[in-house]
Amino acid sequence: MALDKTGIAKRAAQELQDGFYVNLGIGIPTLLANYIPEGMDVILQSENGLLGIGEFPEKGKADPDLINAGKQTVTAIPGASFFDSALSFAMIRGGHINLTVLGAFEVSENGDIASWKIPGKLVKGMGGAMDLVASAKNIIVTTTHTDRNGKSKLKKTCTLPLTGVSCVKTIITDLAVVTVTDKGFKLLERAPGVSVEEIKNATEGNLIVEGNIPEMNLQ
Amino acid sequence: MNKVVKNAAEAIIGLKDGMTLMIGGFGLSGIPENTLKELARIKVKNLICISNNAGVDDFGLGVLLRDKQLKKMIASYVGENKEFERQFLSGELDVDLVPQGTLAERIRAGGAGIPAFYVPAGYGTEVAKGKEVREFNGKMHLLEYGLTADFAIVKAKYGDASGNLIFNNTANNFNNMMATAGKITIAEVEELVPVGELNPNHIHTPGIFVQRIFQGVDYEKRIEFETTR
After folding, report:
1. Closest by alpha carbon to B148, among B126, B177, B121?
2. Closest chain A residue to B76, measured at CA
């Protein structure tokens, strides 16, 4: 069965490693923070100037001077630091962030990503997404495999305006874990109960299937 | 040397129609509320405004937008604002969307006397249109230009009469760089303290970058998305 958002976040959290500095995008990526394995030190960066994002504040304790990049009130963990936006993007552009996790409208089989603009719809701006995808050492996209109309988000080429080119390494969807290779998408894992055939049918780009594809372990 | 002015009205003396302004803040966090109110009151027009966001419909930069005081916005994200959407789609407002890190660096560079630099952000996207492309270390980069402004308007938690500033938590954001990039930089602060009271080790913005400073009043410090456990 296809995973829900929580399932995608749980599987994506397995990609975290002790000591990682991580930038999480809005939506499913934000949920990863709930599934950081116990005993693992993962420091979350917020591009508006916080390294060490903590939990949401208790009721009545929200601080207008302490927000995340989604403009939600947050807290800072012990050992956190604050800084200006130029230094924040020095962390990102300079390759100091180990992992970026973000959502997408489309990913192409060569790792291009479209995530910020749909022609004809309201343009809100790219925020920090273009900076993040252009410079992160490792980029994971978390998304549903298909859109609301059942159309594949894993494309041969992106049709929407791009956020970045040849940058996505791994895609974790409600159906599968896929890595981007020179020859296209390579299937690594299936969601529990989902067949290779179903994943193939939901993938527009070239999908490489080699040998037995294991199910995700979500325990 | 006296940098201290009474209030926002005195701080913006010389600020005229058609000027380029930098306005500090991220969302509604760390915006110069007092000066923005004064700009709305005096109805200065045709402004080019450099700010990461555009406020919300009835607060922050959104008020200047509503009253059609802005000719052009240079920003990275302008969601959360219906009037912005309307003016943008109708062509009344000229908008230059810039990746956030590039925007921050363009302001830092402008203030630091660096006319241009290369960054990878935006390569291969519509942001790259018309820009010089150059390869460094096997990676493609875009030429981007430093930004300066006639007035940079920033907000800090603490300041002193020398113009030294200390920000609070994530309310620093664009304020620190913008302070360096204004021909005239106005700082409004929550607490203006006597010279010597701020620990020099803790200063974020050294006073050399600030020409006018005042203690603001009646800070509303509105929260855009109050989220609790």
Report:
1. B177
2. A127
Residue B57 is predicted with a pLDDT of: 86
From the candidates A15, A38, A47, A198, which is the catalytic residue?
A47
Q: Where are the domains of chain B?
A: 8-116+146-215
Instruction: Report whether A58 contacts B228 (CB < 8 A).
Output: yes
Give pLDDT tens digits for A44-102: 999 999 999 999 999 999 999 999 999 999 999 999 999 999 999 999 999 999 999 99
User: Given 3.40.1080.10, 1.10.3720.10, 3.10.310.10, 2.40.40.20, which CATH number is that of B8-116+146-215?
Assistant: 3.40.1080.10
Chain A neighbors of B222, CB-CB under 8 A: 64
The tokens for A34 are 């709930």
This prediction has a pTM of: 0.96
Please give, rounded to a whole number of angstroms, the shortest distance from the CA of B228 to a CA of chain A.
Answer: 5
Are the CB atoms for A28 and A5 separated by under 8 Å? yes
- From chain B residues 122-151, the ones with a CB under 8 A of any chain A CB are 122-127
* ipTM (interface pTM): 0.96
Catalytic residue check, A47: yes
Question: pLDDT category, B210, cuts 50, 70, 90?
Answer: very high
Beta-ladder partners of A84? B173
DSSP conformation class of A57: P
